[in-house]
């Protein structure tokens, strides 16, 4: 990080076999122009800073060669010339990242062996459009209590049980105790439901309440508009708002009920509303699935899918468009999963965002704090 340096690597001769060997350094990478600290900094800038490959290379070039943006920070410094300039490119950073991804894929088996699980999981998928218009989906499995992310998989689609079987098989190979599972929260993907019925029949399936709300949005808007169809102007707007608030309160009473019996009572009140029969019909088949988290043996199961996990993933990947291929997308997802397991949540809460375990990483919450080991150490960067 101090700029271009000439390093002489001493060679020695073994008195016994008469062969020569060179000394090894923890900061030097064999066959690379850049020291290990530069490679670790590049991967961390891209992963933690949420930067693109080009911006990561640009910032490192500026720092290493005292050029480009460095001259914006220190405008009185002279511009470097000749061999003093740094020529780090985005393709080199991408090669380092891809090498880390291959290491993460090799370590997927037994990666989280011995890490305790709560038995309550969350599953979700993120669609990505690759180069050439190809679409793939990243499937994710995470612990609802600790937030530990099991190694994800990239598949062609989430329809059918086979893609979800791949996800659970990889999680089991990584160390997930299949017999300790109690519940899974998801957005209601039919393939996941089929897999659970066929292979994990004792596991309860909690429907994501946020996705249920989104599915009822059209019916809510339609009923509010129908209630004010004979009025105009402000009177119509007030009646639409009033109808929407009344129906939303009745639906919320179903989702927020303390027990399944109370939820069915709230469902009956919704059906009795002059404008609530359509909402009650659409909600009838999902009442029990929306209240799974209220059961005594499902303590810790969340009622919303792990959508928040994709927040950091989306910041730098552009939904996978710059991954190029499905293999690279999967390697990138594996690197991101390790990063997330090792990275602690920030200490302070924000106005719209609160953290359940401030200052702790998912591994620490699960009971196996990594100590001074970082995600870069785990990737052998």
CATH architecture of the largest domain: 2-Layer Sandwich
- What ranges have pLDDT less than 50 throughout 5 or more consecutive residues? none
Question: Which topology of the largest domain does CATH recognise?
Answer: Nucleotidyltransferase, domain 5
Shape: elongated
Helix content: 40-55%
- Largest sheet, strands/sense/barrel: 5 strands, mixed
SSE order, one letter for each helix or strand: EEHHHHEEEHEHEHHHHHHHHH
Span between N and C termini? 16 Å
CATH class of the largest domain: Alpha Beta
Strand content: 5-15%
What's the total number of strands? 7
Number of domains: 3
Mind explaining what this structure looks like?
45% of the residues lie in helices and 10% in strands. With 381 residues, it is of the alpha/beta class. The chain folds into 3 domains: 63 residues, no CATH class; 163 residues, 2-Layer Sandwich (Nucleotidyltransferase, domain 5), CATH 3.30.420; 89 residues, no CATH class. It has a 5-stranded mixed β-sheet, sandwiched between helices. A two-stranded antiparallel sheet has the order 1-2. A hairpin with a 6-residue loop joins strand 1 and strand 2. It is elongated, with a radius of gyration of 27 Å.
Question: Layout of SSEs?
Answer:
Blueprint: E1 11-13, E2 20-22, H1 36-48, H2 53-65, H3 70-73, H4 90-106, E3 120-129, E4 135-143, E5 149-155, H5 161-174, E6 183-186, H6 190-199, E7 204-207, H7 209-227, H8 233-255, H9 260-272, H10 277-283, H11 287-290, H12 310-317, H13 326-342, H14 362-366, H15 375-378
Parallel strand pairs: 3-6, 6-7
Antiparallel strand pairs: 1-2, 3-4, 4-5
